[in-house]
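>> received
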Amino acid sequence: MTVIDMHSHFFPLSDAAYAAAAERDGLPWLKRSGAGEGMIMVGSKEFRPVREALWDPARRIEELDANGIDLQVACATPVMFGYTRPDAEALDAARRFNDAAIAICAHNPRRLKALAQVPLQNIDFACQEASRAMETGHLGVQIGNHLGLRNLDDEGMLTFLTHCADIGAAVLVHPWDMMARERMPKYMLPWLVAMPAETQLSILSLILSGAFERLPRSLRLCFAHGGGSFAFLLGRVENAWTHRDIVRVDCPKPPSAYVDRFYVDSAVFSPSALQLVVEVMGEDRVMLGSDHPFPLGEQAIGQLVGTHDRLSASAKAKILGGNAARFLALEEAFAE
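>> returned
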């Protein structure tokens, strides 16, 4: 059985010139502090302490070996998205980071793959970079779940998602720029409260707007962190759709009818939560995702799925690798 972790992150090392410019201009860059540790900086401000598996592919492979992971897919740390930058600058940054991702994967291309980032603030540029990235070896793209006040049902976003379907790019939707930060100044509450809500919002924006009726079924779409709060609250949404016409005005089918249009990962950290996600989504729509190598990620990658006492061996095989091979269009590469 091939084990695939389809949700992890990277941050490339910066040369001195880029680091100096980023520090001056308020952009993200990586500052190494020695002993395998570093700090993601945004301009001159510290953003998050990190460790070397985030930028060192050799160390990453060591950790994959220790966890029995055959293949890991890495994507940008969301602070790298650059959605508020001028269009041309964001496109240039996306190209720089995407090329860096391919260079990291070149350390062991059988074990490491990447999802690209794109400048979503300009849909033409985003489509252009997604196409270029697929040609240079990426398996798809990672995007943020919104752009300012624009959710995924925005016409431009739907144009981009349709383009991804057309070029065969898998899409991972990752929450970022979380809501109501002013009410959550401490304890990482934006990551613990708003991040799951942001993900549910992005899923419901596609369901309740009727967007899934317009998007091609060939689109391969995944929402991070088990789909956030979606699985737990689907019953509430279904009840609202049934009894309130203002909820279903643009959505012709019950919300539960659309769970076969997207995937979620397994990064929920609780056996009971994983059980609920599998029951709601189905065992064919959940994939191993660790959020490695961050502290909020799964520390023993795959353990939650592998040791789950209520999942069948067949379900575990699908979640640990089979579903991701299909999602990432790698079935032939890992055929027995």
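>> The CA atoms of residues 12 and 103 lie 10 Å apart.
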